[in-house]
Amino acid sequence: MATKFQDKIDRFKDRILVVDFGAQYAQLIARRVRENNVYSEIIPHNLSAKEISNYQPTGIIFSGGPTSVNAEGAPQIDPGIYELGIPILGICYGAQLIAVQCGGKVGRNEQGEYGRTEMTVSSPGSLLADLETGTHPVWMSHFDAIVEGPEGSLATASSTNAPIAAFESPERKLYGVQFHPEVQHTPCGEKLLTRFLFDVCSCSGDWTMTSVIESSVESIKQQVGDGKAICGLSGGVDSAVAAALVHKAIGDQLTCVFVDTGLMRADEGTQVVETFDRHQGIELMHVKAEDRFFEALEGITEPEEKRKTIGELFIRIFEDAEKQVQDAAFLVQGTLYPDVIESGTKDAAKIKSHHNVGGLPDDMEFELVEPLRDLFKDEVRSLGKELGLPDEIVWRQPFPGPGLGVRIIGEVTPEKVATLQAADKIVREELRNAGLEREIWQAFAVLPDIRSVGVMGDERTYGYPIIIRAVTSEDAMTADWARLPYELLETLSSRIINEVSGVNRVAYDITSKPPGTIEWE
Length: 521
Ligand code: XMP
What we know:
Blueprint: H1 5-11, E1 15-20, H2 26-34, E2 39-44, H3 49-54, E3 59-62, E4 88-91, H4 93-101, E5 105-121, E6 134-148, E7 154-159, E8 162-169, E9 174-177, H5 189-200, H6 209-224, E10 228-233, H7 237-250, E11 254-260, H8 268-279, E12 283-288, H9 290-297, H10 303-324, E13 328-332, H11 337-345, E14 367-369, H12 377-386, H13 391-394, H14 414-433, E15 442-446, E16 452-456, E17 459-472, E18 480-481, H15 486-499, E19 503-508
Parallel strand pairs: 1-2, 1-3, 3-4, 4-9, 10-11, 10-13, 11-12, 13-14, 17-19
Antiparallel strand pairs: 5-6, 5-7, 7-8, 8-9, 15-17, 16-17, 17-18
Helix pairs in contact: 6-7, 6-12, 7-12, 9-10, 14-15
Xanthosine-5'-monophosphate binds next to loops.
């Protein structure tokens, strides 16, 4: 593992640990904390109190969870945690767990509370100090309810089905809320978290992108020493930011390898070369491999075979390039925090074999440098900005490793790639013109393997359709089709048909994920 534990301790002064009890929202809690410039990290609930104290946390937040605290096998936490003297805030399940482990009681309700609920604040205490006594909307999701708070605690709020919607015991540094302060639907949530972080835990709020850069540069220097590193650039934001950060730390000891597969979006290859070679001054090995990819893809129509062919050839070419960088012992990867969290638990059925520059084979003998392992995507974008990367890269939408190869249904040919690139460029341009570029998770064109009859200028046409796919999403695990304005769809349709030869029809994909996937193959 690249980021060593001790290293993390040294890097960030304040640290809020989010203990995950199987919540939907553990990541969201960590992000909300970080939005206050306080570093936060998610840990599993089965660590011992000693292990938890080794992290030297400034404060601890217990997440919600799907089970009942009274159910057999419900996730617990080492009760030794309450003896550490570290402030603890429990949310939903987390609050109930504090109650039952510290002398209170949780009972089964006649009725649960799900969604928007009115909470009545009776005595604000320190956590709800910013709220007037009276009612406030909060977002609840529970069936069980706390009927007695931890011994000696004060109930500060209630709701119809949660007699104790918030409690606190300042002497024992225990705080709990039945509602979810981390979600947008709890307007007072932000203030409550701020109170916890700054009043209760006395955090300093000095975790900024500048401090992240400084500490990362320091730890990359320590890790790499005077060794050499290589980094595969995909054109995407993660590898770009990782490369820029590592370059800041070790300069010419880093070489970037950019394999141009010929399957990137229009102008993207040129832009990667311009940004890294010219502006950032990074040693860049630009491997032009278009012909090899097109040759390998000849006659292949089956999606998985296509993905495998592209992935394997990519690895072969990357390995050849890497051999030319003599004595490189380190491989830079743009692994993000959600990947780190998910790789611990993910056991999902394989839908597609993903390939990216992070998907290089295990037998490559490199030590990994993963400077973004602690960061969420939006933080990586801020970091990229801070490092001087252009908006086109910082705000680039996710793009699949196999590139346009999985957006061309059927055989991939240079002509089809050119057609798709032209249509895709229009989609991106018009989305930007409409000011929707940052709101839409991904928007692109797909070229299917069918043709249809049309009429243009009194002539019969027999051309390809272009399918536009635009989705909103938080994490690509689920997605909804974007409700693009009709005017935008109209502009897209007319520009694509007028400007892209061989295309006579435009369709809009209105499938969410699931049941569809974001990409077509
Ligand atoms: P799907 O199509 O599975 O895509 O809904 C989910 C997200 O992953 C991207 N994607 C890939 N990313 N290598 C990648 O790095 C791949 O092989 C790959 N295939 C899909 C896709 O663009 C979407 O953001």
